[in-house]
Request: fold
Amino acid sequence: MTALVVGAAASPAAAQTRTFSDARGDATAAVDMTKVKVANKKRALVVRITVPDLKKSALEGVNVTIVTKRRARPMYISTKSRYPDGPWSSLSLVSFQAESVVRCRGDRIRFGARAITVRVPQRCLDRNRKAVRVSISLVSRANDGVSSPEPGPDTYADGYPSLVAPKQPPWVRYR
Reply:
């Protein structure tokens, strides 16, 4: 009698990817995200933010907060913002626990016609091999710096999972 054993191994192409929806019309069109796709891959965490009416010239800042499922829940913030006089700052990755900027080669942000893609190598997340939670905020240049944003079509910011409620986003498994 011959037995056939079939096994399957996770390949890099089978990385855990989750897609989340965000309500349309809860912010000004230039920053109103409608979908967030998070891929927690072997080499990098990739976050794609869909903004149907994206206008890079109307953006003031992009912030991606990453919490890993390791002990003490390390948190990182990948941020790119516009200086008051117009040009963009370089992308920076900040370790919340270390209260310092993480030197990271390979992290990048790309602005497409309808999406923003942020890539952070796992080595920059202290060689993360665990699940992650990702929160996002997009801020438009209409930010007055004084008022707190409230969801609505004229709001200068949008956030996932919520701009104003203390919701936790779901975990996205590693690979």
In short: The longest strand covers residues 59-68. Residues 1-14 have pLDDT under 50 and may be disordered. The chain has one domain: 15-144+153-160. The chain has no helices and eleven strands.
